[in-house]
Amino acid sequence: MGTGASVKFTFLKLLTGSDLSIRRLPFMVADSGAEGPVLWLTACCHGDEVGGMVIIQEIFKKIRKNNLLTAGSLYSFPLMNPIGFETGSRRITFSREDLNRLFPGDPRGTLGERIANTIFTAILKTKPALVIDLHNDWIKSIPYALIDTEPESGDLKIHATTTEFALETGFPVIRDTERLQCTLPFTLRANDIPSFTLELGESYIVNEKNIEYGVQSVENIMSMLGMTIPAKNEHPYPLPGILRGKILDYSSKPSSSTTGIVRFLSKPGDIVREGKAFAGIYNVFGKRRETMRSTCDALVLGHNDTSVSFPGMPVMAFGTF
Ligand SMILES: [Zn+2]
């Protein structure tokens, strides 16, 4: 200890471009030199979700300048979808694929499946204790930890461990209710590796407050894993007392039944009780056509990026309890 971790920035090859340029996957490694667990941070799987990259940069800065890492290793793919990032697109622009629906990928598959396979194989090889995948959500949304539905195969203990890690972030912990089989965290857990997603506010731009929250939550996890000198376990995010230690279920219901303009009556972070009006939908002449009410007690995670509504459109996302 005291000598500082060795930090390396390198690349894995993705493909050769039409101009013969090599497209690469940036890869960051910090090795404390002392025995300990492997933690992975991954980001920008959706090209327009840029905040996670900055959280990773800040953690590596702290490792280099403040000797944050004292045991184990931290690995990172800060930019999993460089093609989407450069073109402001969630998807891999060339093939229009959503990279986070393609894991574990296939070395002989589509472009997206090949990229997914390069990522997945590299992560698996290091036998990580935990993989945190950093994402962003609607423009108006609060940070939360998202746990995928339980895989059918794999060790059940992994689910409990994943939940413990997610609670340590200090954010609301939300269990997904839609079964997305091929996300990175779902596929890792099916391979007995604890993994969850952090959804940290808006896409497209860096939200500094959410960067602070994200860095602190990663530090909490590193401390829990024994990778740092256990100092602080601050939860800077103002989690309402009644939500501490709770797992909430994700819901974007009820959806609207009317075409019109939405006026939001609740904001992200509010707790709405069953029956509370959370949005009104108005027609072009200003007449209220629909009042949307919460169907149970819930935490408002965020509201849609648009105030245009059509029948069947999600208006708000909730963590229900
Ligand atoms: Zn995402």
Task: Set down the secondary structure blueprint.
Layout: E1 6-16, E2 22-31, E3 38-43, H1 51-66, E4 73-77, H2 82-86, H3 111-125, E5 130-137, E6 140-141, E7 144-147, H4 157-168, E8 173-175, H5 184-190, E9 195-202, H6 208-224, E10 247-251, E11 260-264, E12 271-272, E13 277-282, E14 288-293, E15 298-303, E16 308-309, E17 316-320
Parallel strand pairs: 3-4, 3-5, 5-9, 7-8, 8-10
Antiparallel strand pairs: 1-2, 2-4, 6-15, 7-9, 10-17, 11-13, 11-16, 12-15, 13-14, 15-17
Bound molecules: zinc ion.
Structural commentary:
The structure is a single chain. By secondary structure, the protein is of the alpha/beta class. The chain folds into 2 domains: 238 residues, Aminopeptidase; 69 residues, Beta Barrel (OB fold (Dihydrolipoamide Acetyltransferase, E2P)), CATH 2.40.50. 22% of the residues lie in helices and 29% in strands. Strands 1, 2, 3, 4, 5, 6, 7, 8, 9, 10, 12, 15 and 17 form a 13-stranded mixed β-sheet that branches. It has a 4-stranded antiparallel β-sheet with strand order 14-13-11-16, with no helix packed on it. The longest helix has 17 residues. The structure holds zinc ion. Zinc ion binds next to loops.
The SS-based structural class is alpha/beta
The low-confidence runs, each spanning 5 or more residues with pLDDT under 50, are: none
C-alpha termini separation: 45 Å
Just give the CATH class of the largest domain: Alpha Beta
Kindly state the percentage of residues in helix: 10-25%
Number of beta strands = 17
Short description:
The chain has six helices and 17 strands. With 321 residues, the protein is an alpha/beta fold.
